[in-house]
Structure to design on (525 residues):
């Protein structure tokens, strides 16, 4: 058939009819009821669609889908090739999927809801506005660049938040990509590594302050790799609420992710090539230490992934990330034989850790931040985020985060943010006051974030708290999938009245942090 281009408002319908002759059966059925023994035939059908060439709104570049390596040509021709390939390989695919899922589905220690969650949340890898392109300038890439072999991969922050590879959120979701498709994770990290040094002089109007700022400054990890309404990969930093070059979490998350990815892939060459960038980023973070404390301070505006929730001074969240980044740099420097850098970052780590504990430890949790604001005592569900990444990376944390502190913190979060919020039926709410009331300082403090809850549950698994982990994550799963019907559209945030924000969101892929923790030996139920 000829390919047709539709006009605006025009629809095309396709019908398929298959005729097959089946010989009549003979005799009677075994039951003696007179039913015929039936002859059976199988009709195999393959439904494929292709859009091998892609342009975004600005039309500055033309991209080819990664699959065009094997299915080239115009759409109709490549669709025919795909259909033939599917019909001759689908049985192998079914067997491979069954083999992959079987250990989890047959594990009697895992709750049944979790077996649904761990596989179904992967919908977002393909349904997140995902693009996977061949690099159009493959010949210009370094021979060791993973994009030369595996292309460029990007997915949206959310169905409503149209920004590709939003890094502060991908940080959570990366457990899925890093575990299942580690080479694609490397491609994404390489893309961000290159963008660290990029400069875009275009002035952007900031929605929050009404001020203007440079779109992309050097030595900063960008918030995202662009909006499909512009030109992704080229016009990065589509986010324009705040100046993200002044965010305190992005550079730190890149460093932490780099080492965590290494512990999965064990690719020393990739780590070695990325290490100089990590050094540049951590030294850039010195400019965020305004008081000379040896640890980053937040600037009194939402300068991190909780972009409605203001942190001031040393915060449990960003301070914990800074400590984790320094610990990862110590490990990387030792692995790569950089003794001077190892000693440098070990000294900085010791100082930062001491300041963190002195300023924030209350005896039962790390308080929200070191300011004297009315919400500085808030109990944050995500305060152990940096610690979780160190556990996932196999770093010895005892000298950094004392085990007794971690134990008390998890007790506090579980009793207050989980069980103290709708009796544990919705997951972990982001913020609670020490008196057991909800922190209503910002919309995000009173939300349950799906990715944060899954990361918290993973921390519980690492600490041998299986029952608490299943209660925490199970309440969230049942709310999303069974009570409000948002399966395959998992939102970023939920509130106590079961309203939600941003359906179809990247961060929920953090559930694979739970899988990684479970696979490392926590198999009692």
């Amino acid at each position: 058939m000829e390919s047709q281009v539709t006009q605006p408002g025009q629809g095309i319908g396709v019908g398929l009819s298959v005729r097959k002759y089946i010989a009549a059966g003979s005799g009677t059925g075994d039951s003696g009821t007179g039913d015929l023994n039936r002859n059976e035939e199988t009709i195999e059908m393959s439904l494929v669609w292709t859009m091998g060439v892609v342009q975004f709104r600005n039309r500055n570049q033309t991209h080819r889908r990664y699959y065009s390596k094997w299915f080239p040509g115009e759409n109709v021709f490549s669709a025919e090739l795909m259909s033939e390939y599917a019909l001759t390989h689908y049985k192998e695919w079914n067997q491979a999927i069954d083999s992959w899922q079987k250990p989890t589905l047959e594990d009697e220690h895992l709750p049944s809801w979790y077996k649904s969650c761990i596989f179904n949340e992967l919908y977002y890898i393909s349904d997140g506005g995902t693009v996977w392109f061949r690099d159009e300038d493959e010949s210009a890439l370094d021979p060791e660049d993973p994009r030369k072999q595996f292309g460029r991969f990007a997915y949206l922050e959310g169905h409503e938040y149209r920004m590709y590879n939003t890094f502060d959120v991908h940080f959570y979701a990366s457990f899925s990509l890093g575990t299942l498709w580690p080479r694609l994770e490397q491609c994404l990290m390489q893309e961000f590594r290159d963008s660290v040094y990029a400069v875009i002089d275009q002035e952007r109007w900031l929605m929050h302050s009404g001020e203007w700022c440079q779109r992309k400054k050097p030595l900063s990890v960008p918030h995202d790799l662009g909006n499909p309404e512009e030109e992704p990969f080229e016009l990065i930093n589509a986010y324009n609420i705040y100046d993200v070059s002044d965010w305190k979490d992005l550079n730190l998350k890149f460093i932490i992710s780099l080492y965590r990815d290494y512990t999965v892939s064990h690719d020393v060459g990739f780590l070695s090539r990325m290490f100089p960038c990590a050094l540049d980023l951590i030294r850039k973070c010195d400019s965020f230490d305004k008081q000379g404390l040896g640890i980053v301070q937040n600037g009194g505006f939402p300068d991190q992934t909780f972009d409605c929730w203001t942190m001031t001074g040393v915060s449990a969240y960003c301070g914990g990330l800074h400590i984790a980044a320094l610990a990862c740099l110590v490990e990387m420097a030792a692995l790569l034989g950089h003794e001077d850098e190892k000693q440098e970052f070990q000294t900085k780590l010791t100082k930062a850790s001491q300041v963190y504990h002195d300023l924030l430890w209350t005896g039962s949790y790390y308080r929200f931040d070191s300011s004297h604001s009315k919400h500085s005592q808030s109990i944050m569900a995500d305060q152990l985020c940096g610690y979780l990444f160190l556990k996932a990376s196999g770093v010895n944390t005892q000298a950094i985060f004392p085990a007794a502190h971690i134990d008390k913190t998890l007790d506090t979060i579980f009793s207050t943010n989980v069980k103290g919020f709708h009796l544990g039926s919705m997951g972990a709410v982001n913020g609670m006051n020490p008196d057991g009331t909800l922190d209503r300082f910002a919309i995000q403090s009173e939300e349950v974030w799906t990715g944060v809850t899954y990361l918290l549950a993973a921390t519980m698994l690492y600490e041998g708290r299986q029952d608490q982990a299943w209660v925490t994550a199970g309440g969230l799963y049942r709310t999303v999938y069974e009570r409000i019907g948002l399966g395959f559209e998992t939102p970023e945030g939920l509130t106590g009245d079961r309203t939600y924000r941003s359906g179809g969101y990247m961060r929920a892929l953090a559930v694979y942090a739970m899988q990684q923790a479970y696979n490392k030996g926590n198999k009692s139920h």
Notes: DSSP finds 15 helices and 13 strands in the chain. The mean pLDDT is 94.
